[in-house]
Design brief:
64% of the residues lie in helices and 8% in strands. Strands 2-1-3-4-5 form a five-stranded parallel beta sheet, sandwiched between helices. Helix 8 links the parallel strand 3 and strand 4. 28% of the residues are buried. The radius of gyration is 52 Å and the shape is rod-shaped. It folds into two domains: 98 residues; 195 residues, SGNH hydrolase (Rossmann fold, 3-Layer(aba) Sandwich), CATH 3.40.50. Helix 3 crosses helix 11 and helix 4 runs parallel beside helix 8. The chain is α/β, with parallel strands linked by helices.
């Protein structure tokens, strides 16, 4: 009986020891699991921190790239504006150069020569205008395309206006006369030399002063159309001056003529009656006309 008791007690101790060992093993496993979980948590937190830092770095890089692109865009736009401004400046300078070159060709006077003979070279408005230009420092040449004692029909022919257009005026004058005799200037065309009909003035600024000897059937509107016919023979019609005086025969007064001409030509028109009390055929009248032409060219911006 004692041996049975002792045997049972030994088994109980063995079981107790096993239980203790199992408990200890469980504790060890539990501790190891906690430490592993903690280490894993630390590792995950570290990874998360690294990812966050990486994202921040990426955002900063993207922001820097965006700022760089914006800066580059602004710089490009700035350069573009500067280039546009430089291009505009160059175009303006080129335009000024073209305008200067146009003016540098000079001035051409078309129409009536009211000072006859050698005195024309000194006292005509063309000669006085050339002197005024020289005295004012303008290196411009005045070309003479005038005719002494000729009518407007001859002047249009000299300018190269189509013959059928000139003839239409002659026919109109003859029909209006109804068989009555007309002044030679209303139907006749002067014989012109090759030198007179040669056009060496197409790049010059025209001053058209005609109508004193007739050729326009006493109709200011017709005179304006004849002036326009000569102006149209120039390749450019934006720079010009029209000067007018009442005719030699007194068939049209200055007020009537100026009314039609002012409406037709506006600021381009010079009325002799408004600039001088001297007749256009006098030295004084011619000098006053020359001064008025010079001032008109300044007013219209043809001269600096």
């Amino acid at each position: 009986m004692n041996s049975n008791y002792q045997g049972g007690e030994g088994r109980n101790r063995l079981l107790l020891i096993l239980c203790i060992l199992l408990f200890i093993l469980f504790g060890v496993l539990l501790l190891w699991s906690r430490r592993s979980n903690a280490a894993e948590a630390d590792r995950l937190r570290e990874l998360a921190a690294q990812e966050e830092q990486k994202d921040q770095t990426g955002d900063e890089t993207e922001q820097d790239e965006t700022q760089t692109e914006e800066t580059a865009g602004e710089e490009t736009e700035k350069n573009g504006d500067q280039q546009s401004q430089e291009q505009q400046t160059a175009e303006d300078e080129e335009s000024e150069t073209e305008e200067t070159s146009t003016l540098a060709k000079g001035i051409v006077c078309w129409g009536d020569d009211l000072i006859n003979g050698e005195e024309s070279a000194t006292h005509s408005y063309r000669a006085v205008l050339q002197n005024l230009l020289n005295e004012s420092g303008y290196n411009l040449t005045v070309i003479d395309k005038t005719l002494q004692g000729a009518g407007t029909l001859s002047m249009m022919t000299m300018a190269g206006v189509p013959q059928e257009e000139v003839q239409s005026y002659i026919t109109k004058h003859q029909e209006a006369a109804q068989g009555q005799e007309l002044p030679i200037t209303e139907t006749g065309i002067r014989d012109l030399t090759a030198e007179q009909t040669q056009r060496n003035d197409l790049e010059y600024i025209p001053v058209i002063f005609m109508g004193y000897y007739g050729g326009w059937n006493h109709d200011p509107a017709e005179l304006a159309s004849q002036q326009e016919a000569i102006l149209n023979t120039f390749p450019q019609q934006d720079q010009y001056i029209i000067a007018g005086t009442f005719p030699l025969d007194g068939s049209v007064d200055s007020a009537t003529l100026d009314s039609v001409m002012s409406e037709k030509w506006g600021d381009h028109y010079i009325s002799m009656a408004s600039i001088t009390s001297n007749p256009a055929s006098t030295y004084e009248g011619q000098a006053d006309l020359a001064a008025a032409i010079l001032q008109k060219m300044k007013d219209l911006g043809y001269l600096a």
